[in-house]
Amino acid sequence: MNLERERVLARQLLQEGKKEKAMLLLKKKRYQEQLLDKTENQISNLERMVQDIEFTQIEMKVIEGLKIGNECLNKMHQVMSIEEVERIIGETQDAVEYQRQIDEILAGGLTEEDEDAILEELNTITQEQMELPEVPSEPLPEQIPGTFSLCALQLWLLVLLSSVQ
User: Which one Pfam family would you cite for this protein (predicted)?
Assistant: First the structure.
């Protein structure tokens, strides 16, 4: 290393009696050491800045990704309203019931006589067990506070029906 060589040279100058030249050489050596330390600190600071910039760029990409994701979700919510979902669920339930009826027909289930007998028995049982209450004379409120809306009730029934099947 150059600094070590200058120290050896300063020692030689002292042995030769050239104290001032040795002192000047040691000052030069000391200045170079300080300059090297400053340079190393500056390089270290620059490396830290580069790391900070890179991390900030990554953070910006994450934030941009979140922003795009939120915009996408909002657009999807605009396309699919609750009413649309309820309509689709209703149509799906109707289609499932229709397919069940087709399956029963294709399976060669019950004859028409059997169906009539079953319906007659059902009506008999229903009439025996059913005691209807009197119909109120005043009009019913549109929705009682604290109760379910018609749509929420339909959705609950659909969930219940699908869990039974």
Answer: Snf7
| Pair 22, 14: CB distance under 8 Å | yes
- Taking only the tens place, the pLDDT of each residue in 109-143 is 667 777 788 788 888 887 776 665 666 677 655 55
The pLDDT value recorded for residue 44 is 95
Q: Are 149 and 143 in contact (CB under 8 A)?
A: yes
**In whole angstroms, what is the distance from residue 145 CA to residue 148 CA?**
9
Residue pair 103/165 in contact by the 8 Å Cβ criterion? no
pTM: 0.39
Please give the C-alpha separations between residue 10 and each of 5, 14, 73, 74, 78, in angstroms, as whole numbers.
9, 6, 75, 77, 83
In tens, the pLDDT along 51-105 reads: 999 999 999 999 998 899 888 888 887 777 788 888 888 999 999 988 888 777 7
